[in-house]
Each structure stands twice: as C-alpha cells, then as structure tokens.
C-alpha cells in the first residue's frame, strides 16, 4: 500500500475531542476525566484478565518504553524503568515530555533499575494503583509478583513477549488508564504523521527491508535478525516498505521476536533489498568482504542503514513519543539506502 493510500486510510472523521489532556501539567501520576465513568476497568491480556477497581491515579510502568503512553496522554508515572540503551537514564523524547508536564526535580518519576530484571521492591515503594507493561517480556511469574503489588497489565492476549506493536500498546495502556478515546486519537495522529512524512520519500516504497540484530564482526557464522513479530521491522510497513518473503516465512513458522540462521543458509535472504542494523562502516566492510554474507543483495550493494547507540538507534524501535522525535532522520537514512538498491 502506498504512503498516499495509507494516508487516505488513516485520516478518517472522528467525533472525538482533541487530546486536551496533553496540555495538562501533572507533577504526579493522575488521570483526567474522560469517557470513563470511574467504574471498574477490565483488561484481557496474555496471562488472563486484570480488573482495575477504579480509574487509576498512581501509575507505575516497568520494562522498556511503557511510560510513553501515559506521558503522551498527559499522565506522569510515579515510577518508570530507567533507560538502559541510548546513553542516558531518561531518553530525550521522554525528558522533553516530562519537562512539558512539569515533572522535574522532586516531581520527576522514580527510576527503576532493571539491569537484573524488574525491581519489585522499588515498584512496590511507589504504591501504584496500576502497573503498565504492555510492551514487555514479562514472564507469568513476573506478572504474578507484580499483581501482588497492584493490578498489572502485561502484553495483549494472543501476542508474544516483546511483540506488542506501538498501536497495541497505546490501546491496552490507554484503556487501563480510563483514557481509551484519547488513546484512539493518539494512534490516529501518529498514523497521519507517519503517512504524510513517508509520502515525501517515494524511493522507499515497497522496498523489502530486513532488520539485523547486533552483528559480531568476529563471528559471521550466523545471521541474527528481528522477525515480523517485532516492532522494529513492523514499523517498515508503517512507512510503506515491505517484509521480505524470507523473513515472513520464518515468522510464520516461529513465534519468537528474533531468529538466527547459519551463514550457510543466508542465500534465503536473496530477496532482501535493504538492511537496517547496528554498527559502523568498518563492520559493513567486514560483511561485504565475507564470501558468504557478502552475497546478500543489500550487503553487496551497500544498501545498509547503520545505527548507533544514540537517539536514532534507540528509537528505531518505535514508541509513542519516539516516533515523532526521529521520524525525519530515519526516513532520510532509509531513503539513502534505497538509492543504492539495484
């Protein structure tokens, strides 16, 4: 589907007020009055059902990026996971929103150190009314322990760990907050922005794009990649690009968000036109010089986007606040790679 067609599909009349809640200045976690009648909220998810007795006021989030949905809707968490990738404890787009909402200094959320997994004690200390983990790798044991602290919302029913799309996370998290309509409007706004900006880069349309995980230049015996279940390659389709048949076939046969094949099997990737991965020009040269991996069309042609440990590299995993922050830069480097496709 072309970006123009996607734009026509995404822009639809909605009898919804604009997200006025975004302008609220909240220093602590709270929810605005909206469609919720203040009654019980029921959420179905991968581990069953969570009942939230009333619209939550104190919101904690665990695992990567889950603070972004409440923040985008004007709700400041009492606690959230510290960033462990991207060079800072709080990612820049998150900090911008915290600054906008006046949640700085003593009013800033508590940061949970998740180096060794969820810090259950620290989460409990924030005394949350609800714990959001819509995009996460929570195990059922993690979920049970968190549920002893407060009603917990893990990834959606039918989804795999770390497989939640940015849309699904907005849907499940906004419902848990009693802000379901605002969540729908946020999705529409982001879809419109994505489609409009992607339409300015027609060269990327339909390009079959693969996202390699971190490459070890000292061991090229395997090829590791994110599957079609992962948010990173899913975002390519939002931009009007395409999933290579090789990746889709593997994903249809496996539930994991990433996979690995031996280098000897890499000829299945002969349909890959663009590769996105983490690394530098030296790493790319190593791949091109390899007699096996160097035959993958994207590598051979140099149609490779090299990401670093920076804002763009972090936000290539799309999240509600990160999308707008890096969209122009991401489209630019994808466009440059598309120009090398032969």
Automatic annotation (TrEMBL):
<dbReference type="InterPro" id="IPR002491">
    <property type="entry name" value="ABC_transptr_periplasmic_BD"/>
</dbReference>
<dbReference type="GO" id="GO:1901678">
    <property type="term" value="P:iron coordination entity transport"/>
</dbReference>
<keyword id="KW-0813">Transport</keyword>
<feature type="domain" description="Fe/B12 periplasmic-binding">
    <location>
        <begin position="58"/>
        <end position="338"/>
    </location>
</feature>
<dbReference type="GO" id="GO:0030288">
    <property type="term" value="C:outer membrane-bounded periplasmic space"/>
</dbReference>
<dbReference type="InterPro" id="IPR051313">
    <property type="entry name" value="Bact_iron-sidero_bind"/>
</dbReference>
<keyword id="KW-0732">Signal</keyword>
<feature type="signal peptide">
    <location>
        <begin position="1"/>
        <end position="29"/>
    </location>
</feature>
<comment type="similarity">
    <text>Belongs to the bacterial solute-binding protein 8 family.</text>
</comment>
<protein>
    <submittedName>
        <fullName>ABC-type Fe3+-hydroxamate transport system, periplasmic component</fullName>
    </submittedName>
</protein>
<dbReference type="Pfam" id="PF01497">
    <property type="entry name" value="Peripla_BP_2"/>
</dbReference>
């Amino acid at each position: 589907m072309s970006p123009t067609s996607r734009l026509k599909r995404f822009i639809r009349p909605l009898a919804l007020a604009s997200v006025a809640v975004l302008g609220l200045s909240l220093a602590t976690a709270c929810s605005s009055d909206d469609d919720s009648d203040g009654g019980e909220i029921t959420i179905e998810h991968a581990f069953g059902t969570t009942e939230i007795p009333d619209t939550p006021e104190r919101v904690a989030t665990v695992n990567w990026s889950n603070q972004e949905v409440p923040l985008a809707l004007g709700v400041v968490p009492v606690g959230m996971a510290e960033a462990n990738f991207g060079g800072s404890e709080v990612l820049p787009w998150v900090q911008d929103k915290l600054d906008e909402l006046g949640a700085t200094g003593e009013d800033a959320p508590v940061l949970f150190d998740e180096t060794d997994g969820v810090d259950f004690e620290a989460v409990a200390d924030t005394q949350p009314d609800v714990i959001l983990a819509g995009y996460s790798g929570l195990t059922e044991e993690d979920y049970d322990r968190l549920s002893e602290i407060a009603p917990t919302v893990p990834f959606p029913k039918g989804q795999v760990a770390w497989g939640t799309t940015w849309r699904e996370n907005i849907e499940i998290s906004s419902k848990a907050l009693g802000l379901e309509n605002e969540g729908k409007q946020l999705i529409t706004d982001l879809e419109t922005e994505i489609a409009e900006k992607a339409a300015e880069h027609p060269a990327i349309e339909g390009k079959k794009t693969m996202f390699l995980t971190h490459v070890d230049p000292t061991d090229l015996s395997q090829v590791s990649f994110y599957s079609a279940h992962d948010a990173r390659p899913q975002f390519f389709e939002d931009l009007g690009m395409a999933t290579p048949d090789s990746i889709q076939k593997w994903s249809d046969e496996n539930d994991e968000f990433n996979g690995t094949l031996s280098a000897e099997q890499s000829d299945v990737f002969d349909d890959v036109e663009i590769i996105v991965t983490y690394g530098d020009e030296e790493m790319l040269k190593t791949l091109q010089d390899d007699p096996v991996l160097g035959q993958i069309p994207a590598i051979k042609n140099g149609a490779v986007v090299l990401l670093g440990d920076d804002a763009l590299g972090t936000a290539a995993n799309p999240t509600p606040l990160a999308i707008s922050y890096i969209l122009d830069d991401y489209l630019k480097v994808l466009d440059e790679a598309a120009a090398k496709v032969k």
